[in-house]
Amino acid sequence: MALASGTHRLLLSCAVVLLMGSSLAARSVQDLGVRVDQLLADVAGNGGPPREHVIAELRSMGAELPPLLVARLGRPGELNADQADVALEALASQPHVVLCAYMRWELNRGELSEELRTGGMRMLAELSGLESLELLIELARSGPDTKLPRSRALILRDALLRYLPREGSPYDELQEFLAEESWELKQVAQQVVGSLDCSRGLEYLTADLKDVSGDAERERQLLVQAARVAGLPRIELPNESTMQTLTAYLDVEPVSLRIEAVQILSRLGDSALIPRLIELMSDRDRGIREQALIGLQLMSATRLPADPERWQAWYEEESQWLASRADALLEQLQARDSAVAFRAMRELSQARLFRRRIATGLTRALWHHDPNVRVAACAAMQIIDSPVAVPALVDVLGDQDEAVAKAAHKALLSITNIQVEFGDGWAWKRVLDGMRGPVALRPGLNITR
Q1: C-alpha distance from residue 323 to each of 100, 280, 317, 329 (Å)
Q2: CA-CA distances (angstroms) from residue 151 to 115, 144, 154, 387?
């Protein structure tokens, strides 16, 4: 039987053939290895036992068989086509094992066609995920092309996205890719990071910018991926190194890099960057001016026109209010007199600058003795719309007053744009974990158990 036709038959039937019980479990691995070699030698010679008898005895070796056969299939030149076909058929009840063994055998022969290479990668990704990641990478990079073809890159990317852990830190699995010398493989990892919907990804992508400094196209590709995760709700701003790296791109050329940097920084919502965005509204490039205006409107929830002077006046007025009024108003949130707390909250909720700081201060009102004040505090946080409030709002979901709990739930839905049923504390805990670090969550998701 020809290897190609035999393999096709095996790959179609491997999911339904049952593994025979092991009658030789007591044998040592060494003895089994010797017997495997004898049986495979019989296949190569004349006058040996029938092929089906050889396969049946191999299968009877049970759990010890796969590593023995895979090792022999993985060594270049050890098995001829007939022997490899018998070995693969003996493994047919384990589709992952037989596919890996066959692809490894073909890879070592050095005669792997592009069609078979791509098809094998696709099947490996479907059957086994990260268990075959090493082989997937080798198949992706070992072809005659100097660059990773798009078809292989997409298969590898999709396999990573499908099988990387969605709890814990998926970036641990991506470190090898992020350290790759091959730009094509690094690019696959960067696309995966950009698609994992995890705020921590911004730090990883920004760190890679240092390695491609001076290569505008590669810098742009990294910034595009960074922009995908920059808008995710996050409780804390990126670390200082990340912010410095991104801010430096406001002054580089070409202008396309500056536009990406403005977009990323605007989505992060750091009020300290507003003066710089106001400056960029007078930039010589129209694209920069337009993106700076979009960023200012996003960060301030204010729809002023493209007039730098009006924006500067607004910024100075807000800053003066913060310096003269904010601290006193925040203190009043804890006043015994509910009317005083209500008035303070009403004024604070109208703030459009330094929203992270105001939202943090508003959490004081969530523990007020009056449940009506607590409800109003949740509503004020919903208006201010800062992710900083999420941890406190999650805590308030357990408030004994149902009206307070429902107000907190409503505010959380609005701030995170993630759909969770009322009363599902586990889901909100997952959302909170995602905003703090590695769990991947995209606004718009519907989180259920």
Answers
A1: 66, 25, 10, 11
A2: 11, 14, 5, 39
Cα–Cα dist 278/282, whole Å: 8
CA distance 155 to 153: 6
Tokens of 306: 């493209």
Count the neighbouring beta carbons within 10 Å of the beta carbon of residue 253.
8
Residue 110 — left, alpha, or beta (φ > 0 → left; ψ -120 to 50 → alpha)? Answer: left
The model carries a pTM of 0.66
In DSSP terms, 420 is beta-bridged to: 447
**DSSP structural state of residue 239:** P
* Three-state secondary-structure class, residue 42: helix
State how far the Cα of 19 lies from the Cα of 39, in Å rounded to an integer. 18
Q: How far apart are CA 352 and CA 333, in angstroms?
A: 19
d(CA 199, CA 190): 14
Task: Give the CATH number of domain 325-447.
Answer: 1.25.10.10
Q: Which of 296, 213, 294 is nearest to 253 (CA)?
A: 213
Radius of gyration in angstroms for the set of CA atoms belonging to the chain, rounded to a whole number: 30
- Side chain identity at 441, as an amino acid letter? L
Q: Are 32 and 61 in contact (CB under 8 A)?
A: yes
Distance, in Å, from the CA atom of 246 to the CA atom of 264, rounded to the nearest integer, reads 8
Six-digit token string for 233: 């709700």
Residue whose C-alpha is closest to residue 170's, from 438, 445, 435 = 438
Structure tokens at 295: 């960023």
**pLDDT, mean of each 10-residue run, the chain (449 residues):** 45 32 47 83 74 84 74 76 81 72 76 75 70 74 69 78 61 65 74 68 82 87 86 80 92 92 90 93 94 91 91 94 91 93 92 86 92 95 90 92 95 89 84 64 44
Query: Which of 77, 78, 76, 67 shows the shortest CA–CA distance to 100?
Result: 67
Domain 197-306 and domain 325-447, same fold? Reply is yes
User: Residue 181: what residue type?
Assistant: E
In CATH terms, the superfamily for domain 197-306 is Leucine-rich Repeat Variant (1.25.10.10)
Q: Which two tokens stand for residue 418?
A: 């993630």
User: How large is the angle between the packed helices 114-127 and 150-163, nearest 10 degrees?
Assistant: 10
DSSP state of 238: P
pLDDT value at position 4? 45
| Chain centroid, CA 447 distance in Å | 17
Per-domain residue ranges of the chain: 197-306, 325-447
For the record, the structure tokens of 405 come out as 């709990």
First to last CA, the chain: 50
pLDDT attached to residue 308: 94
